[in-house]
Specification:
Layout: H1 6-9, E1 20-24, H2 35-43, E2 46-49, E3 66-69, H3 81-93, E4 98-102, H4 112-122, E5 126-129, H5 134-141, E6 155-159, H6 173-178, E7 182-186, H7 192-201, E8 209-214, E9 222-227, H8 231-238, E10 244-248, H9 255-258, E11 270-273, H10 277-289, E12 293-296, E13 300-303, H11 308-316, E14 323-326, H12 329-342, E15 353-356, H13 359-366, H14 381-389, E16 399-405, H15 411-418, E17 422-433, H16 441-448, E18 452-455, H17 458-466, E19 476-479, H18 482-490, E20 497-498, H19 504-515
Parallel strand pairs: 1-4, 1-5, 2-3, 2-4, 6-7, 11-12, 11-18, 14-15, 14-16, 16-17, 18-19, 19-20
Antiparallel strand pairs: 7-10, 8-9, 8-10, 13-17
Helix pairs in contact: 3-4, 10-19, 12-13, 14-15, 17-18
The structure holds S-adenosyl-L-homocysteine.
């Protein structure tokens, strides 16, 4: 605590207000958040966010930042607009940096203008961070350019939802109908029949093409097309719902040739990733890049081994062994994280030879700029043991360091010891069940199921089964390799595909195969 200064003792102890950032969070695809928007999220003491702003972005917030949901789904106003304005002002006057995240662009049908006016009136400093608007991105992700030289030189944006307190319509349907070129409408899916008939009555050609893009730029994106005469029926037939962007005009036909987002190989497929939160990234990323709707449902978490000190000593002594034997990528990671902390020079590993249970593990070793001397043809613990027993000169009196998890059934050291080798076990980590469901993935899987379940380790299988989640009959199960498949078999689960190379790219290929 600072002592009172004479200045504050005289009554002007109020801190200067914090800045409010009115930030466009883009239309949904996390890649469409701007760098400046991300910075503002990181800076915020208070985050106020909308229904349309991707909640994933909250992860960028600094620890302890206050997160407030301001709603804005039609009919669900968690906070009334007036309350939202008051909240932004109140928090700023407390001296806090406030980031107000809005879907799309804050000044395109986002009430950002009103909020900024209130801030000015209250003397609160503010900045605007424009975002990628759904008016442009929605059509783009449906393969529809809003302008195209062959079709239009004009673009009209309008809202199908008006302030209900305003009384008679302020929308000039005649002017909209008369406007040449592309028209993009936000909101108003629920009122489409009324809107299209007004436009037709006002003279718009009933055969004018229209597309509706729902949850644009997200894995849930859904597109329907028709003419302004048929689209209301199409909405009824497909039970199409908000939020959606409507594009009207000849450019809509370009979707036939330019659709790309929803034509990617795994688009719309729900795929469950059961790896640890820390490891899910690479697999999720590759699946998402192919269009999949990825649900990360970690079943296990990697923790330090019981005897951390013992592990550290063995890593330190690694150069004393003739062979280092790695049984998993996690073991490699744990080993080298510590090794690089202990030694600055990679040559401190000595003249050891290195064995890996499979190609994934070997790849992780190579990331440390070390070669791998042995990978068994049969990439299992037993396969590795068999290959080691066949090394030149045999294993008798040779020194092995086995780097492995705590709980694994350990046939390797037993087998080597029996053949006369001197074996030490370096217990690198333990896998424990991931019990909390902070992202709601378990609940979502229970409700919606998935097209494919992916498993990248036997322990992920064991712990998934322990969660007792029902697996729908049509759901395909894909395994990374023989060890994982064996775990699936042990639980009586069917295997629809096993990866041919036992690594993440192999697993992704297997997912593609099983859905082909
Ligand atoms: N400021 C936002 C628009 C807010 S108004 C922007 O620039 O995009 C809310 C309307 O935007 C929704 O009713 C819907 O019509 C549209 N919208 C926003 N995000 C969308 C998305 N991902 N997919 C489809 N429509 C979206």
């Amino acid at each position: 605590m600072m002592a009172d200064t004479p200045h504050s003792a005289h009554g002007s102890s109020r801190r200067s207000p914090g800045t409010v950032f009115l930030v466009g969070a883009g239309p949904g695809d996390p890649g469409l958040l701007t760098l400046r928007a991300k910075e503002c999220i990181e800076l915020a003491d208070v985050l106020v966010y909308d229904y349309l702003a991707n909640p994933l972005f909250l992860h960028y917030a600094k620890p302890g930042a206050e997160k407030i949901y301001a709603g804005k789904k039609a009919g669900d106003h968690a906070l009334k607009q007036g309350d939202t304005n008051a909240l932004l002002i109140q928090k700023a006057l407390e001296g806090k940096t406030v980031t107000r995240l809005k879907g799309g662009d804050p000044f395109v049908f986002g009430r950002g203008g009103e909020e900024a006016e209130e801030l000015v009136a209250a003397g609160v400093p503010f900045e605007i961070v424009p975002g990628i608007s759904s008016t442009i991105a929605g059509p783009a992700y449906a393969g529809i350019p809003v302008t195209h030289r062959a079709f239009n030189t004009q673009l009209t944006l309008f809202t199908g939802h008006e302030d209900p307190t305003k009384g008679p319509s302020t929308l000039d349907y005649a002017a909209i109908a008369r406007a040449p070129g592309t028209k993009v409408m936000l909101m108003g899916v629920e009122r489409m029949r009324a809107i299209t008939s007004q436009l037709i009555a006002a003279g718009l050609d009933p055969t004018t093409p229209i597309a509706l893009v729902r949850w644009a730029t997200t894995p849930r994106q859904q597109v329907i097309t028709g003419t302004i005469e048929t689209i209301a029926d199409e909405i009824d037939r497909t039970q199409f719902k908000a939020p959606a962007v409507a594009v009207i005009g000849g450019v809509v036909n370009l979707r036939n040739t330019l659709a790309w987002f929803d034509r990617r190989p795994l688009f719309g497929k729900k795929i469950l990733v059961t790896r640890t939160r820390a490891q899910a990234g690479e697999l999720s990323h590759q699946l998402a890049a192919l269009g999949a709707d990825v649900i990360e449902l970690p079943t296990i978490r990697i923790e330090d081994p019981e005897d951390r000190l013992g592990f550290g000593e063995l890593v330190q002594d690694a150069h004393k062994y003739e062979w280092l034997v790695f049984t998993s990528p996690n073991g490699v990671e744990r080993f080298f994280t510590l090794f690089h902390k202990l030694y600055e020079d990679v040559r401190s590993i000595g003249g050891v030879r290195i064995a890996a249970v499979g190609t994934g593990t070997a790849a992780k070793i190579r990331e440390n700029h070390l070669g791998v001397d042995l990978v068994p043809k049969v990439m299992t613990g037993d396969g590795l043991l068999a290959a080691l027993l066949k090394i030149d000169g045999g294993v008798d009196h040779r020194m092995f360091l086995l780097i492995r998890p705590e709980e694994v059934r350990n046939t390797i050291s037993a087998g080597l010891t029996k053949a006369g080798a001197i074996v030490d076990d370096a217990i690198a980590y333990r896998t424990v069940p991931e019990t909390n469901d902070e992202t709601g993935a378990q609940a979502r899987f229970r409700e919606e199921g998935a097209d494919v379940l992916t498993f990248a380790s036997g322990s992920a299988v064991d712990h998934f089964v322990a969660l007792n989640l029902p697996i729908p009959a049509a759901t395909k199960i894909v395994s990374i390799g023989p060890v994982t498949s064996e775990a699936l078999k042990n639980h009586g689960l069917r295997i629809d595909a096993e990866a041919t190379t036992h690594d993440i790219p192999g697993l992704v290929q297997a997912v593609k195969r099983v859905l082909a």
